[in-house]
Write a structure and sequence with these properties.
Order of helices and strands of chain A: EHEEEHEHEHEH
Radius of gyration of chain B: 16 Å
Shape of chain A: globular
Largest sheet of chain A: 7 strands, mixed
Strand content of chain A: 25-35%
Distance between the termini of chain B: 21 Å
Low-confidence stretches of chain A: 6-12, 56-70
Structural class of chain A: alpha/beta
Order of helices and strands of chain B: HHEHHEHHEH
Number of helices of chain A: 5
Distance between the termini of chain A: 49 Å
Strand content of chain B: 5-15%
Oligomer: heterodimer
Largest interface: A-B, 55 and 60 residues
Chain lengths: 197, 125
Amino acid sequence: MDSVRSEAPRRAPQTTRPELVALKVLVAGGFGVGKTTFVGSLSEIPPLSTEEHMTVASVGVDDADAVPDKRTTTVAMDFGRITVDDSMILYLFGTPGQDRFWFMWDELARGAVGAIVLVDLRRVDDSFAAIDYFENRGLPFVLALNDFPNTPVFSNASVRDALVLTGDCPVLHLDAREAKSSRSALVALVEHALARA
Amino acid sequence: MSSHEARDPEATWRVVPVYALTRGRTRSAGEEMPIEAMVTANELADRHNPALQVEYREVLALVSGPVSVIEIGAALRVPAGVARVLVSDLANAGYLVMHLPPAAEENGRPNAELLERLLDGLRSL
């Protein structure tokens, strides 16, 4: 009996303290679009990675594994932290990009302030899945165009057209390597969420 | 969070599979705890510490100040779901103070007051 339960005290001590608040923002977008860079530019701790082990059906997966039906896979999820004030912490979660891990997003999205969808204009198709997801769930999001070198220049109106944006989500440019730039995107998201609160 | 850096990455890979740490449980008992929920050890943690299973002691060692479930997972090199089970056990046994998320709006999202505070904080960073 080395379980924690066997050591349970008889009298319950204080076990909740509601005044400390943790909020979260999701950072989404296709592979290589700059999610980890974005989290790293804002986080006060080096971005940490948590690995989620899960069994997934191998349908459609290029798989040399001898086990035919299922396999265990590992999804790495980056996250960072910002101390907002003396009793508020904001967590940034870089969402796992692959389509087959959408179910993980439901838990992440629950209670979130909103999402930053990073877009590489050279590969806009990669951001459709994230945009669809947040539109369907009514979660506030901003579209942040990560300005890579040699990124073609389009007006925000044509970007909206290209991405078939139906809602009122703000579209902005950023350099995910720059803290100031990344912070502006975060501020734009919170303003947008507040306008919809 | 110095304990993050203190761990030797080569030396901490587990031999015991993670599901064994939680005796097969992947869901915590009681209320659903978000992975960003923060916990802090209380005074009971010190008194009962030596009798606990090593994974519980590892969690308690991390949370002398408020630390989130997901950070505990990263420090222990276990999935967030496993960290949640360990944290939940300790909380149910009375060793942890849980800083639960504020009551949310109907849509589950933070209310305007919290968003204003967040905005003020971000602008003054």
